[in-house]
Amino acid sequence: MNASVKVVIDRLVLRGVDPHHAQALADSLKAELEKTFAQPGAGAGLRHARNARVLRLDSAPLHAGRAAARAFGSNLARAIWKGVGR
């Protein structure tokens, strides 16, 4: 059986993020979500997933710089995965 997962982020609010680094963060978030949800067995982890209209995550520090923004995006994607699959 082939299953598909659709993740839609209508709005990504990045308060306090330097506008020059916001795109790097968003790109990293997208890439990590695609990678995470495409892993073999990912669907099994979502069997009991909740339909999260809003997912509130703990705050996390964001350091300056494009590399830090990319790392933050990757970490954010993993937090979303954990939050949805609870």
Written account of the structure:
This protein has 86 residues and is mostly helical. It has one domain (19-84). It contains three helices and no strands. α1 (19-37) crosses α3 (66-84). The longest helix has 19 residues, at 19-37. The radius of gyration is 14 Å and the shape is elongated.
Low-confidence stretches: none
Query: What is the residue-mean pLDDT, rounded to a whole number?
Result: 76
Q: Give a quick account of the main beta sheet: strands, pairing sense, barrel closure.
A: none
Radius of gyration: 14 Å
Q: How many separate domains make up the residues?
A: 1
Shape: elongated
Helix content: 40-55%
Determine the strand fraction and express it as a percent band: under 5%
Class based on secondary structure composition and strand pairing: mainly alpha
Number of H- or I-type helical stretches: 3
**How many strands in all?**
0
The ordered H/E elements are: HHH
Distance between the termini: 23 Å
Give a topology summary.
Blueprint (H helix, E strand, L loop, with lengths): L18 H19 L4 H4 L20 H19 L2
Descriptive labels:
0% strand, 86 residues, mainly alpha, 3 helices
Question: In a nutshell, what does this entry contain?
Answer:
49% of the residues lie in helices and 0% in strands. The chain has helices at 19-37, 42-45, 66-84.
